[in-house]
UniProtKB/TrEMBL annotation:
This is RQC P-site tRNA stabilizing factor. GO terms for biological process: rescue of stalled ribosome. Belongs to the RqcP family. Associates with stalled 50S ribosomal subunits. Binds to RqcH, 23S rRNA and the P-site tRNA. Does not require RqcH for association with 50S subunits. One of its GO terms (molecular function) is tRNA binding. Signal peptide: none annotated. Residues 1-64 form the RNA-binding S4 domain. Keywords: Protein biosynthesis, RNA-binding, rRNA-binding, tRNA-binding. Key component of the ribosome quality control system (RQC), a ribosome-associated complex that mediates the extraction of incompletely synthesized nascent chains from stalled ribosomes and their subsequent degradation. RqcH recruits Ala-charged tRNA, and with RqcP directs the elongation of stalled nascent chains on 50S ribosomal subunits, leading to non-templated C-terminal alanine extensions (Ala tail). The Ala tail promotes nascent chain degradation. RqcP is associated with the translocation-like movement of the peptidyl-tRNA from the A-site into the P-site. InterPro entries: RqcP (IPR025490), S4_RNA-bd (IPR002942), S4_RNA-bd_sf (IPR036986).
Amino acid sequence: MRLDKFLKISRIIKRRTVAKDFAEGERVMVNGRIAKPSTDVKKGDILTLRIGDRETVFEILDIKDNVKAAEAKNLYRIIE
């Protein structure tokens, strides 16, 4: 699944265009590498998101195309 789509479906970022802008601004890393919006993500990948001066690290636990809002938190876990 594309990185920008995963960020939107998991509700880490609310809109796909905002997720795309984050990745294009080099504020998202996948497994320690700066990621493009089209970067393919899979289970077990580690995402690092920089928002302002904060860094949040997530581990992808599952990939699904359609998820209800209540189940979105089951797709990832926050490491830091």
